[in-house]
Amino acid sequence: MSPLSSSRANPNDWPLFMASCAEAARDPRLRRFFAAGGPAPETPIGQASLVALDLETTGLDPGRHGIVSIGVLPFSLRRIRLSEKRYWVLNPPRTLTEKSVTLHRITHSEIASAPDLDDILDELLAVLAGRLAVVHYRNIERSFLDSAVRARLRERLMFPVIDTMQLEARLHRRRRWAWAKRLSGRKPLSIRLHESRQRYHLPPYPGHHALGDALATAELLQAQIANHYHPETPVGELWS
Predict the structure, then answer these.
(1) In this predicted structure, what is the pLDDT of residue 184?
(2) In the chain, which ranges are continuous DSSP H helix?
(3) N or C: which end of the chain has fewer CB within 10 A?
(4) SS3 100
């Protein structure tokens, strides 16, 4: 059993998990990615190398839907490295639906000549390697990448992430007046990306574009740390 196979696993086991995956991986791209590791759990978030990651997909079920675009953006608490951004449109194994075309504005003609995930996997993993990924709702980014890699390589792709949606949920659950709002019938605060950014007075960006949402997620984490945490907060208290 892998160190993180249980839902109750200690998040500090991520370094051990990555090391064990590096030894077991058959694909050299995955082996290099896992061998690069990442920050130790005690690393202050202010000293960690981060990368914002966003996927746009044809739906919400990794088993039935595919990835149509990926945006990645390296950053730190002090600087967003726009010159190092990467963006890919992919040809998913599942057919685009009318709803997904309307939502993401990626059309059939755009994906017709687009690469498969396997074609850009080496480039993607090179950007992610050694960095701590930051996402807004890990059940999309991590689950879809893991499912896509399993379908192609019969290997897993799991890694620690900081989930800004989860951090926002923690903050609102901790507030003492949350129970009173529920009793009064008031609608709970949304923790979606756009609404979460509004609470920190961050500028609005067009949604459902992988690179734009990666930038929005990076800025949201910077605001969350500045307002509710500290640059010395260990990453092990934030990741999942």
Answers:
(1) 57
(2) 14-24, 28-36, 98-104, 108-112, 117-128, 138-153, 164-174, 178-183, 193-199, 210-228
(3) N
(4) helix
In sequence order, which residues have a C-beta less than 8 Å from that of residue 235 and are 6 or more positions away?
39, 40, 41, 42, 43, 44, 45, 48, 132, 162
Instruction: Say how far apart CA 218 and CA 134 lie, in whole Å.
Output: 7
Give the domain CATH number at 125.
3.30.420.10
Containing 163, the helix (H) or strand (E) segment is: strand 161-163
Q: Is residue 94 part of a domain?
A: yes
CA distances from 119 to 21, 54, 113, 179 (A): 22, 18, 12, 49
Whether 73 is covered by a domain: the verdict is yes
Domain count, the chain: 1
34 vs 4 pLDDT, higher one? 34
Q: Give the domain extent around 194.
A: 39-237
71-86 pLDDT, tens digit per residue, is 999 999 999 999 999 9
pTM of the predicted structure, to 2 decimals: 0.89
- Residue 2 is given by DSSP the state -
d(CA 115, CA 118): 8
